[in-house]
Structure formats: structure tokens, C-alpha cells
């Protein structure tokens, strides 16, 4: 019902725009997708299909067939186009077998390739989909590329290669750091000196070296780690290089970033050139699910330790929800100056319908069957209904610490792709998109396991 409500309002007031503005009842285009439209359509397709909202799925499919225009000219985020559009189209192709989704994914994939024309092969973050010109984000230090962006292409690009028969995509994803001396990004990343074994978030696409020593499992770093373990799973556990990189990275994170607060809450801090920032972003809350997923494989003592860590982090993220008045969590919460899993800055009190906490509930439920995860998920459903549902859709809120929050007038496309999908899967049988057969890309679009022969 929540999905139908979110979709119906988007379709009625904003079809073809990127997101619905549910208070003003119009569409939002934004500047992340380079002139592409319909981000909500593409992000919603597989969720509608999985939920058996047949009529709504057909509406979305028709829009893709008749109105989805790829001949656009504008500045796009390589990362966002990949995870939302390519991921959404690929997943829907695999679920339905409808060729239109495959051909659109391949066509769009081709348009992303010029971003990789850099001295190292590390792509830049922004690309003009018309001209193929690419550049780094203005806000990224010294023209750097972002770990979570160039590290979050692998799953989709392997499938593009598999489906097109063109190895170029797999090569781009696996040889992101091609330079005369270096064969691929993983080799470069294993050679480049890593402070304390940690991966900083900013890398120069020109020199292939770190530009700044900020490490985070939240924003700017997050899905790089996620794609390592998922690359291994998607390869049917053949891509041992990815597994080793994941294991080593997690070991360094455990050693240097995992902390316990005075009140006994486990959290993952951020690291700035050796100094810890005792903060977790909402985005970092996906890590409970990731660590639980990765924990299933390996020696028993390690499995147990990682399952405990995953459960503790998920519980801390749950605390960030329960300690607010709305029972929804803030954008970032801290463990300093007497605060414990609460936001201390006004600018971090908002909630924009993000999925990461329910994502971890879904993984922890599937992997432990502890009923508390369903209870926690149900609390989120109720909080969303109470505080985020408005007359014409769902909206983010500006302050989770008041029971009369102001709405931000935005129904994010990831709410339909991820938040509602993970909530639905939390209450489904385990064989609906079984973790044995599917990996979810970082936008919750399911991709089949063992579907590719391209090895890293
Ligand atoms: C999503 O677009 C993806 O999950 C991405 O990896 C980071 N966060 C947003 C939603 O919060």
C-alpha cells in the first residue's frame, strides 16, 4: 500500500520528472542525472514488479518504452546514473526478460565510458552524456575521484559486459586504474600505501595516489566496501581478490575505527589523518547488513565475531531511531560531548527517507531470524506513516527530534527503490529474492549471482 501510494502520486503529479514533490504536487528534475528523466520510474520498476503491482508496473514499463530518452546533454553523476538507472534497468531485465530494459541499459552504459579516459583509467565523477566530456566534482579535493563512486561500478559493469558480449565494461570496472604501469584498480589499490590498511576517500585520477586522508564507512566510502564483498558473492565466490580486499579492509576498520561508547554502544568512527571523528552517518548504517552478509563465509570464530559486530552496529543504528521523537533517525549522530547516538548539530537532524537502517534489519532478519528485526522494521513503517506520509506522497522531514516536523517536499527515488523494497522483503519469505541467488546493488536493485564469466 505504501508503494502504491508513493507510485500513484508520482505518476499523477510528476511522471517523467525525476522525483515527486509531494507537498507542491509537482516534479523535481535536479542536476544529478545529466538531462535523463524518470529516475523514480526506473528506480521503482523492480519494486513494483516484485510486489506484484502489475498495473503500476505496466505504466512504468510503458513510460520506458515510449518516453525514456537517452539522447540528452547535461552533467550527470557517473555513480548515480550507474546505481539507479543501469542498476534498475538491469534488475528489471533479469526479473522480467523484457528486452527493452536490457537494450536501454546497454545504450546508457556506452554513454558512460568516456568518463574513464583519464591518465590512470580511474573515472572522473561527472560526465556530460551528450559530449562525453568528464570532470571531477568541484567540491572534491584537488580534482580527485571518490572511492565510493569509482568503487561502485563493478557489479553493473560486469553484467553489461555479460549481456553485450563486450568485455569493455568489465575491463573498465576491473581495470579502473589502467596506466602504462598498472593493470587494474585492484592491483593499484593493493600497491598504493594504505594508512593503517585503511582506504582514504579521495584518489587522484591523474596520479593514482590519495589526495586526502579521510576514511569513512559512511558517505564517500560506503559502497566501495559493499561492492567488494558483493563482487565475490556475485561471482559465485570465485573472485577471491575481491574477498581478500574486503577481509583486509574490514580488519583495518575493526582495528582502527570500531569503538564502544561510554554507554556501551558499538559504532564505526570516521578517521581524518589519524584523528578519530566520533560520528556515524545514517549512510554508514548499511554496514550492519554488509558485515552480516560477509560473515556467513569463513572460519567459525570470525563468523561469530562479525555477526556480533553486525548486530551491535545495527542495534546502535536502531538506537539512533528510538532516541528521536519521531522514531526516525537523523542524518548523522555522534558519540562525543555526552551525546550517544543523537545528532548534536542542527544541520544533521533531518531524515530524507533513507534506507540504510531498514536495509540492515532485512539482512539481519534473513540471517538470524531474530524477530526483533521485524519489530524494529514495523516501528519504522509506523513512523513513516505518521511523520512522512502527506496528502500526495511521502516526504522527508527536517528534524527528527520534534513530533511536528516540517516536511522537505521531496519523495526521493531511493525511497521506492530501497526503503520500501527492504521493508517488504523483511516481511516476506526468505525465498523472495533469496540471498543465495541475488545480490542487491547499492540502490537495492537485485542482480543474479553467478551470471557472468568475467573475472576480476
Ligand atoms: C542511495 O542512493 C544508495 O544507497 C547509495 O549507495 C547511497 N545512499 C542512497 C540512499 O541513502
From TrEMBL:
<feature type="active site">
    <location>
        <position position="356"/>
    </location>
</feature>
<feature type="active site" description="Proton donor">
    <location>
        <position position="80"/>
    </location>
</feature>
<comment type="pathway">
    <text>Protein modification; protein glycosylation.</text>
</comment>
<dbReference type="InterPro" id="IPR036026">
    <property type="entry name" value="Seven-hairpin_glycosidases"/>
</dbReference>
<dbReference type="InterPro" id="IPR012341">
    <property type="entry name" value="6hp_glycosidase-like_sf"/>
</dbReference>
<keyword id="KW-0326">Glycosidase</keyword>
<dbReference type="InterPro" id="IPR050749">
    <property type="entry name" value="Glycosyl_Hydrolase_47"/>
</dbReference>
<dbReference type="Pfam" id="PF01532">
    <property type="entry name" value="Glyco_hydro_47"/>
</dbReference>
<dbReference type="GO" id="GO:0005783">
    <property type="term" value="C:endoplasmic reticulum"/>
</dbReference>
<dbReference type="GO" id="GO:0005509">
    <property type="term" value="F:calcium ion binding"/>
</dbReference>
<feature type="active site" description="Proton donor">
    <location>
        <position position="331"/>
    </location>
</feature>
<protein>
    <recommendedName>
        <fullName>alpha-1,2-Mannosidase</fullName>
        <ecNumber>3.2.1.-</ecNumber>
    </recommendedName>
</protein>
<keyword id="KW-0472">Membrane</keyword>
<feature type="binding site">
    <location>
        <position position="442"/>
    </location>
    <ligand>
        <name>Ca(2+)</name>
    </ligand>
</feature>
<keyword id="KW-0735">Signal-anchor</keyword>
<dbReference type="GO" id="GO:0070062">
    <property type="term" value="C:extracellular exosome"/>
</dbReference>
<keyword id="KW-1015">Disulfide bond</keyword>
<dbReference type="InterPro" id="IPR001382">
    <property type="entry name" value="Glyco_hydro_47"/>
</dbReference>
<comment type="function">
    <text>Involved in the maturation of Asn-linked oligosaccharides. Progressively trim alpha-1,2-linked mannose residues from Man(9)GlcNAc(2) to produce Man(5)GlcNAc(2).</text>
</comment>
<comment type="similarity">
    <text>Belongs to the glycosyl hydrolase 47 family.</text>
</comment>
<keyword id="KW-0106">Calcium</keyword>
<dbReference type="GO" id="GO:0004571">
    <property type="term" value="F:mannosyl-oligosaccharide 1,2-alpha-mannosidase activity"/>
</dbReference>
<keyword id="KW-0378">Hydrolase</keyword>
<feature type="active site">
    <location>
        <position position="222"/>
    </location>
</feature>
<dbReference type="GO" id="GO:0000139">
    <property type="term" value="C:Golgi membrane"/>
</dbReference>
<feature type="disulfide bond">
    <location>
        <begin position="285"/>
        <end position="317"/>
    </location>
</feature>
<keyword id="KW-0812">Transmembrane</keyword>
<keyword id="KW-0479">Metal-binding</keyword>
<dbReference type="GO" id="GO:0005975">
    <property type="term" value="P:carbohydrate metabolic process"/>
</dbReference>
Amino acid at each position: 500500500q505504501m508503494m502504491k501510494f508513493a507510485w500513484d502520486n508520482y505518476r499523477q503529479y510528476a511522471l517523467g520528472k525525476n522525483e515527486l514533490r509531494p507537498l507542491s504536487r509537482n516534479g523535481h528534475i535536479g542536476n544529478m542525472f545529466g538531462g535523463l528523466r524518470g529516475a523514480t520510474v526506473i528506480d521503482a520498476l523492480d519494486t513494483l514488479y516484485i510486489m506484484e503491482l502489475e498495473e503500476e508496473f505496466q505504466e512504468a514499463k510503458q513510460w520506458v518504452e515510449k518516453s525514456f530518452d537517452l539522447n540528452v546533454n547535461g552533467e550527470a553523476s557517473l555513480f548515480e546514473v550507474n546505481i539507479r538507472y543501469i542498476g534498475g534497468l538491469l534488475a528489471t531485465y533479469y526479473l522480467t526478460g523484457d528486452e527493452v530494459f536490457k537494450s536501454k541499459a546497454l545504450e546508457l552504459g556506452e554513454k558512460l565510458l568516456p568518463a574513464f579516459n583519464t591518465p590512470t583509467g580511474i573515472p572522473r565523477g561527472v560526465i556530460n552524456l551528450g559530449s562525453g566530456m568528464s570532470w571531477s566534482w568541484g567540491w572534491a579535493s584537488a580534482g580527485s575521484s571518490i572511492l565510493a563512486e569509482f568503487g561502485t561500478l563493478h557489479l553493473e559493469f560486469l553484467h553489461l559486459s555479460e549481456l553485450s558480449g563486450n568485455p569493455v565494461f568489465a575491463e573498465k570496472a576491473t581495470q579502473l586504474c589502467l596506466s602504462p604501469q598498472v593493470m587494474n584498480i585492484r592491483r593499484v589499490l593493493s600497491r598504493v600505501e594504505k594508512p593503517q590498511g585503511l582506504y582514504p576517500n579521495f584518489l587522484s585520477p591523474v596520479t593514482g595516489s590519495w589526495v586526502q586522508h579521510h576514511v569513512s564507512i559512511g558517505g564517500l566510502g560506503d559502497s566501495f566496501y559493499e561492492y567488494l564483498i558483493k563482487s565475490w558473492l556475485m561471482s559465485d565466490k570465485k573472485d577471491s581478490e575481491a574477498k581478500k580486499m574486503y577481509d583486509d579492509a574490514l580488519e583495518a576498520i575493526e582495528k582502527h575505527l570500531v569503538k564502544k561508547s561510554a554507554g556501551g554502544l558499538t559504532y564505526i568512527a570516521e578517521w581524518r589523518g589519524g584523528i578519530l571523528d566520533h560520528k556515524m552517518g545514517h549512510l554508514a548504517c548499511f554496514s550492519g547488513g554488509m558485515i552480516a552478509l560477509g560473515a556467513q563465509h569463513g572460519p567459525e570464530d570470525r563468523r561469530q565475531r562479525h555477526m556480533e559486530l553486525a548486530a551491535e552496529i545495527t542495534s546502535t543504528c536502531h538506537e539512533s531511531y528510538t532516541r528521536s521523537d519521531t522514531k526516525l533517525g537523523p542524518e548523522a549522530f555522534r558519540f562525543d560531548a555526552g551525546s550517544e547516538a543523537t545528532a548534536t548539530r542542527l544541520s544533521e537532524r533531518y531524515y530524507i527517507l533513507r534506507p540504510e537502517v531498514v536495509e540492515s534489519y532485512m539482512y539481519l532478519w534473513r540471517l538470524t531470524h531474530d524477530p526483533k528485526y521485524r519489530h524494529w522494521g514495523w516501528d519504522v513503517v509506523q513512523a513513516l506513516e505518521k511523520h512522512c506520509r502527506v496528502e500526495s506522497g511521502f516526504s522527508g522531514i527536517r528534524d527528527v527530534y520534534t513530533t511536528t516536523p516540517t516536511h522537505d517536499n521531496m519523495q526521493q527515488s531511493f525511497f521506492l527503490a530501497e526503503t520500501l523494497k527492504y521493508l517488504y522483503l523483511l516481511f516476506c519469505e526468505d525465498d523472495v529474492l533469496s540471498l543465495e541467488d541475488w545480490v542487491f546493488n547499492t540502490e537495492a536493485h537485485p542482480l543474479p549471482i553467478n551470471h557472468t564469466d568475467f573475472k576480476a
